[in-house]
Amino acid sequence: MSMTETTIIAQTIQWIQSVVIGCNFCPFAAKAVLKKSIRYVVLSEVSLETALEAVVEELRHLDRTEDIETTLIIFPNHFADFEDYLDLAGLAEDLSIEQGYEGVYQIASFHPEYCFAGADENDPANYTNRSPYPMLHLLREDSISKAVDHYIDPEGIPERNIAFAQGKGLQYMQGLRAACLEIVPK
Questions:
Q1: Tell me: the pLDDT tens digits for 148-163?
Q2: Which of 67, 82, 102, 138 is disulfide-compatible with 71, CB 3.0–4.6 A?
Q3: Confidence (pLDDT) at 1
Q4: 82 part of a folded domain
Protein backbone atom coordinates (compact mmCIF):
# COMPACT_ATOMS: atom_id res chain seq x y z
CA MET A 1 0.00 0.00 0.00
CA SER A 2 1.51 3.30 -1.01
CA MET A 3 1.06 6.26 1.24
CA THR A 4 -0.54 9.38 0.01
CA GLU A 5 1.04 12.78 0.26
CA THR A 6 -1.72 13.73 2.72
CA THR A 7 -0.78 10.86 5.02
CA ILE A 8 2.94 11.67 4.87
CA ILE A 9 2.27 15.31 5.71
CA ALA A 10 -0.16 14.39 8.51
CA GLN A 11 2.44 12.05 10.04
CA THR A 12 5.11 14.73 9.75
CA ILE A 13 2.84 17.30 11.39
CA GLN A 14 2.12 14.83 14.20
CA TRP A 15 5.87 14.32 14.67
CA ILE A 16 6.39 18.07 14.87
CA GLN A 17 3.59 18.43 17.41
CA SER A 18 4.34 15.44 19.62
CA VAL A 19 8.13 15.20 19.36
CA VAL A 20 9.61 18.51 18.24
CA ILE A 21 7.16 20.70 20.16
CA GLY A 22 5.97 18.18 22.75
CA CYS A 23 9.53 17.44 23.90
CA ASN A 24 10.50 21.10 23.40
CA PHE A 25 13.39 20.08 21.14
CA CYS A 26 12.85 23.30 19.20
CA PRO A 27 11.34 26.03 21.36
CA PHE A 28 10.61 28.06 18.23
CA ALA A 29 8.60 25.46 16.29
CA ALA A 30 5.25 26.10 17.99
CA LYS A 31 5.12 29.65 16.66
CA ALA A 32 5.67 28.48 13.07
CA VAL A 33 2.93 25.86 13.48
CA LEU A 34 0.49 28.40 14.95
CA LYS A 35 1.26 30.87 12.16
CA LYS A 36 0.85 28.08 9.58
CA SER A 37 4.12 29.21 8.05
CA ILE A 38 5.56 25.75 7.35
CA ARG A 39 5.55 24.46 3.80
CA TYR A 40 5.55 20.69 3.31
CA VAL A 41 6.93 19.32 0.04
CA VAL A 42 6.70 15.57 -0.50
CA LEU A 43 8.98 14.17 -3.19
CA SER A 44 8.01 10.54 -3.64
CA GLU A 45 10.13 9.84 -6.69
CA VAL A 46 13.52 11.53 -6.92
CA SER A 47 17.12 10.94 -7.77
CA LEU A 48 20.00 12.72 -6.08
CA GLU A 49 20.02 15.22 -8.94
CA THR A 50 16.28 15.97 -8.82
CA ALA A 51 16.39 16.18 -5.01
CA LEU A 52 19.08 18.86 -5.26
CA GLU A 53 17.09 20.68 -7.95
CA ALA A 54 14.12 20.66 -5.56
CA VAL A 55 16.25 22.22 -2.82
CA VAL A 56 17.19 25.12 -5.10
CA GLU A 57 13.56 25.45 -6.21
CA GLU A 58 12.41 25.61 -2.58
CA LEU A 59 15.07 28.17 -1.66
CA ARG A 60 13.79 30.33 -4.52
CA HIS A 61 10.20 29.73 -3.36
CA LEU A 62 11.16 31.03 0.08
CA ASP A 63 12.65 34.11 -1.63
CA ARG A 64 9.28 34.79 -3.26
CA THR A 65 7.04 33.89 -0.32
CA GLU A 66 7.63 35.98 2.80
CA ASP A 67 4.83 34.35 4.82
CA ILE A 68 6.53 30.94 4.69
CA GLU A 69 9.14 30.70 7.46
CA THR A 70 10.39 27.23 6.77
CA THR A 71 10.08 24.37 4.30
CA LEU A 72 10.32 20.66 4.98
CA ILE A 73 11.30 18.65 1.91
CA ILE A 74 10.25 15.07 2.66
CA PHE A 75 11.65 12.03 0.83
CA PRO A 76 9.39 9.11 1.87
CA ASN A 77 10.76 6.61 -0.65
CA HIS A 78 14.41 7.61 -0.98
CA PHE A 79 17.57 8.20 1.04
CA ALA A 80 16.66 5.51 3.59
CA ASP A 81 20.37 4.75 4.03
CA PHE A 82 21.65 7.32 6.52
CA GLU A 83 25.05 7.65 4.83
CA ASP A 84 23.39 8.34 1.45
CA TYR A 85 21.16 10.87 3.16
CA LEU A 86 24.17 12.61 4.74
CA ASP A 87 25.68 12.87 1.25
CA LEU A 88 22.46 14.55 0.07
CA ALA A 89 22.45 16.93 3.05
CA GLY A 90 26.09 17.90 2.47
CA LEU A 91 25.55 18.45 -1.24
CA ALA A 92 22.40 20.49 -0.54
CA GLU A 93 24.34 22.70 1.87
CA ASP A 94 27.16 23.16 -0.66
CA LEU A 95 24.66 23.94 -3.40
CA SER A 96 22.84 26.51 -1.28
CA ILE A 97 26.16 28.30 -0.67
CA GLU A 98 27.03 28.07 -4.36
CA GLN A 99 23.64 29.62 -5.20
CA GLY A 100 24.37 32.58 -2.91
CA TYR A 101 22.17 31.56 0.04
CA GLU A 102 24.86 31.41 2.72
CA GLY A 103 23.60 33.46 5.66
CA VAL A 104 20.12 33.65 4.12
CA TYR A 105 18.89 30.10 4.70
CA GLN A 106 20.06 27.22 6.86
CA ILE A 107 19.53 23.55 6.08
CA ALA A 108 18.83 21.24 9.01
CA SER A 109 18.69 17.47 8.70
CA PHE A 110 16.24 14.90 10.03
CA HIS A 111 16.22 11.18 9.27
CA PRO A 112 14.61 8.02 10.70
CA GLU A 113 18.08 6.56 11.40
CA TYR A 114 19.75 9.80 12.51
CA CYS A 115 22.84 9.15 14.59
CA PHE A 116 25.08 11.87 15.95
CA ALA A 117 28.78 11.46 15.20
CA GLY A 118 30.39 9.33 17.87
CA ALA A 119 27.04 8.32 19.42
CA ASP A 120 25.75 4.80 19.82
CA GLU A 121 22.88 4.15 17.38
CA ASN A 122 20.64 3.26 20.35
CA ASP A 123 21.32 6.49 22.23
CA PRO A 124 17.90 8.08 22.86
CA ALA A 125 19.49 11.48 22.11
CA ASN A 126 19.47 10.56 18.40
CA TYR A 127 15.67 10.94 18.53
CA THR A 128 16.06 14.70 18.74
CA ASN A 129 16.72 14.44 14.98
CA ARG A 130 14.92 11.18 14.11
CA SER A 131 11.95 11.99 11.94
CA PRO A 132 9.33 9.72 10.35
CA TYR A 133 10.95 10.18 6.92
CA PRO A 134 14.22 11.53 5.53
CA MET A 135 13.80 15.27 5.18
CA LEU A 136 15.67 18.50 4.71
CA HIS A 137 14.52 21.50 6.71
CA LEU A 138 15.09 24.89 5.09
CA LEU A 139 14.97 27.77 7.58
CA ARG A 140 15.29 31.52 7.24
CA GLU A 141 18.45 32.69 9.02
CA ASP A 142 16.89 36.03 10.01
CA SER A 143 13.96 34.21 11.66
CA ILE A 144 16.39 32.06 13.62
CA SER A 145 18.33 35.14 14.71
CA LYS A 146 15.18 36.93 15.88
CA ALA A 147 13.97 33.89 17.81
CA VAL A 148 17.34 33.26 19.44
CA ASP A 149 17.67 36.92 20.45
CA HIS A 150 14.56 36.55 22.64
CA TYR A 151 15.45 33.19 24.17
CA ILE A 152 17.48 32.69 27.32
CA ASP A 153 20.49 30.41 26.78
CA PRO A 154 19.92 29.21 23.20
CA GLU A 155 23.39 27.61 23.28
CA GLY A 156 22.10 25.21 25.94
CA ILE A 157 19.27 23.83 23.78
CA PRO A 158 21.23 20.83 22.40
CA GLU A 159 22.42 19.76 25.86
CA ARG A 160 18.89 20.09 27.30
CA ASN A 161 17.50 18.05 24.40
CA ILE A 162 20.07 15.30 24.92
CA ALA A 163 19.38 15.21 28.67
CA PHE A 164 15.62 15.09 28.08
CA ALA A 165 15.79 12.26 25.53
CA GLN A 166 18.23 10.23 27.59
CA GLY A 167 16.12 10.82 30.70
CA LYS A 168 13.01 9.52 28.94
CA GLY A 169 14.87 6.54 27.54
CA LEU A 170 14.99 4.65 24.28
CA GLN A 171 11.59 2.93 24.51
CA TYR A 172 9.79 6.20 25.23
CA MET A 173 11.47 8.03 22.33
CA GLN A 174 10.90 5.10 19.95
CA GLY A 175 7.23 4.89 20.94
CA LEU A 176 6.68 8.61 20.58
CA ARG A 177 8.00 8.65 17.03
CA ALA A 178 6.30 5.35 16.11
CA ALA A 179 2.93 6.77 17.18
CA CYS A 180 3.32 9.46 14.53
CA LEU A 181 3.41 6.81 11.82
CA GLU A 182 0.06 5.45 12.98
CA ILE A 183 -1.69 8.66 11.90
CA VAL A 184 -3.82 8.05 8.82
CA PRO A 185 -6.09 10.97 7.85
CA LYS A 186 -9.66 10.18 6.84
A1: 677 778 788 899 999 9
A2: 138
A3: 35
A4: yes
HSE on the CB side for 101, CA within 13 Å? 22
pLDDT digits (tens, 9 = 90+) for 53-83: 999 999 999 999 999 999 999 999 999 999 9
Q: Is 120 part of any domain?
A: yes
Relative orientation angle of helices 48-64 and 82-98, to the nearest 10 degrees: 50
Please tell me the distance from the alpha carbon of residue 75 to that of residue 85, in angstroms, as a whole number: 10
Structural domains of the chain, count: 1
Residue ranges in the chain modelled with pLDDT below 50: 1-2
HSE-up of 179 (CA within 13 Å, CB side)? 12
Residue 185 domain flag:
no
CA–CA distance, 16 with 13 (Å, rounded to integer): 5
Residue 186 lies in a domain: no
Contact 182, 24 (CB under 8 A): no
For residue 103, the enclosing domain spans: 5-180
